[in-house]
Amino acid sequence: MKNQSEKIDALWQKSEDNFVIQGLKENRPIEEIYNSIDGIKNTFLETPECLACSDGRIHDHRIARAGSGIIAGEKVMIKAAGELIKAGIIKHRFEITSHEGCAAAKIALDELKKFGKLKGDITPDEFGKKYARDLVGSLNKIYSDTEFIYRHIRADEMEKLHCERVLYYDGTRKFKKIEGLPDGFIFTDMEIEPEESIGELIALSDVALSHGFGERFTNDNPFRIIVLGENEAQLEKLNHMAQVAVSSDNISGRTVWHSLNLEKLKL
Description:
Blueprint: H1 4-16, H2 19-25, H3 30-35, E1 50-53, E2 63-65, H4 74-86, E3 93-99, H5 103-114, H6 124-142, E4 147-153, E5 166-170, E6 184-188, H7 194-210, E7 223-229, H8 232-246, E8 255-261
Parallel strand pairs: 1-2, 1-3, 3-4, 5-6, 5-7, 7-8
Helix pairs in contact: 4-6, 5-6, 7-8
């Protein structure tokens, strides 16, 4: 029976054969790579109906932030939800989820403990559930025309191991992983202060570099942030945040970013 390290080695070798990863390693133009994927238009057709964690083990088509926004915090996410409602992304019924084994929940919990802002004992899973339930309660009070509901994603509903090769920084708010794309985190652009988004990009990249494939990422074969922008104006904003993130001491050297303008895809 294979141990976990052997399983991750096998997943790594499989990911090395991915068409997108191979193309990026060969420095081919990213638009050329993505235009060669069958059904690429299906990646951006539908609007998600839930908010979930960026964790690449989750299967849901989703608006995604680290821990469903637990690092940004409830107040920030309430404001962001209002903007998504105004933009027609969140409609009449919308799920807010937590999930088992959430690294972002642990990060947020440890931060509260560090500054003495937490009373009593609570596990990261319990903390993640409480955050999502509280957010649902607040959203239902503030935005009464939309029904927000809570759902917890169990471990048996997710992939068992982290095998993210990339982070999809999604400006379209529609991204859905399809066959042929490498496994990765999903991180949705929202009307949130740039410093918050940069911090989450760093935190998620750090998870990739310290869990899952971890040390297999090197200067020559790095973890990759793929910025997905609807146009040049949006790309300029998202590229800036990705550039700042990859220069962070936490992830510098083993993380790079790529910029994909969807206006150049055959959608």
